[in-house]
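Minutes, project huddle
Topic: does the predicted pose make sense with zinc ion bound?
PN asked that the exact inputs be recorded in the minutes so nobody has to dig through chat later. Recorded below.
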Amino acid sequence: MNKTFFCPSMMCADFSNLKDEVEQLNAAGVDVFHMDIMDGNFVPNFALGTNDLQAVRANTDKLVDVHLMIKEPGKYVELFANLGADIIYIHPEAEPHLLRTLNKIKASGKKCGLAIVPETAIESVKYLLDKVDYLLVMTVSPGFAGQRYLDFVTDKIKDIVKVQKQQHFKIVVDGAVSPEKIAELSKIGVAGFVLGTATLFNKNETYQTIIERIKKL
Ligand code: DX5
Ligand code: ZN
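Predicted holo structure (tokens), as shared on screen:
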């Protein structure tokens, strides 16, 4: 994926019609289905589970990522790889053995990503950036959709863009991503955007209409 890519945050979807939601998002031209997995421990919430991942996986040939907001994600790499995740994001704030777990993800044949909460400085993961395919920069505190964008993270994103120039990883932004933020951040080097309630879900327009519009930003 070289163009800007869009990742619907499926925890925001209408789960009473999940198959239909996935089919509409497929048709609308999204790129990666973003699956927020939570353990009620690393974050004070639960979102999607393995059955949700299987249901989305069964209804799309597009990429599916899992955003593991769970403690000790290294224990569950095989589980999510076998359930069909194409990209596995882990939090350095939740994993004591980062390099080992990143290598485990790669050994499972999947793409790997680090997801960092707003407070985490990029310096704390700088020795790993040449080992990951994606860096998921959270612009809200993890665990809940519908929050407000934390403005201080934009400066961190600008710093990451400078570092990224010598690396192969792609920058993805996750949390309160509005059309205005897509326009602003794609111009400075962000490659991917997780779309939740700020842009895509619970709107009175079709996914097709919204995706068509944001692809022109
Ligand atoms: C929050 C999740 C995000 C969230 C995005 O912990 O990682 O993916 O669902 O939803 P909005 O865009 O509503 O913040
Ligand atoms: Zn997420």
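Observations noted during the meeting:
- The chain has a mean pLDDT of 97.
- The pocket of zinc ion (ligand 2) is lined by residues 9, 34, 36, 67, 174, 194 (CB under 6 Å).
No decisions taken; revisit at the next huddle.
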